[in-house]
Write a structure and sequence with these properties.
Number of helices: 3
Radius of gyration: 12 Å
Strand order of the largest sheet: 3-2-1-4
Helix content: 25-40%
Largest sheet: 4 strands, parallel
Number of strands: 6
Order of helices and strands: EHEHEHEEE
């Protein structure tokens, strides 16, 4: 997957996040569909189609953030794009370092 961009979109199981994920996949990006509830993320990934992968992530839980970062690191080795529909995560482009910020 080295030639394909990888994006993480929080809240991607519904609303704005879901639409952003659909648009990214339609443009050839592999999207990690991040949601607090893994089953809802899986359902959204199925709806989005090939190129969407469910990822459990609760941005208010440090353990969840660490677990998600480790999965990304192991399975993909990088993130090229990241987006949050609420803006409550800080991302550094190309980094696997996630830091919660207050709302």
């Amino acid at each position: 997957m080295p030639d394909k961009r990888i994006a993480l979109v929080t809240g991607a199981n519904q609303g704005v996040g879901l639409q952003v994920a659909k648009e990214l996949v339609a443009n050839g990006v592999t999207v990690l569909v991040a949601s607090r509830n893994f089953e809802r993320g899986e359902a959204a990934a199925r709806e989005i189609g090939a190129g969407a992968i469910a990822l459990q992530l609760d941005v208010t839980d440090r353990v969840s953030i660490a677990d998600a970062a480790e999965r990304v690191r192991k399975e993909f080795g990088r993130l090229d794009l990241a987006g949050s529909k609420r803006g409550n995560l800080e991302y550094r482009m190309g980094s696997l370092s996630f830091r919660s910020t207050p709302r």
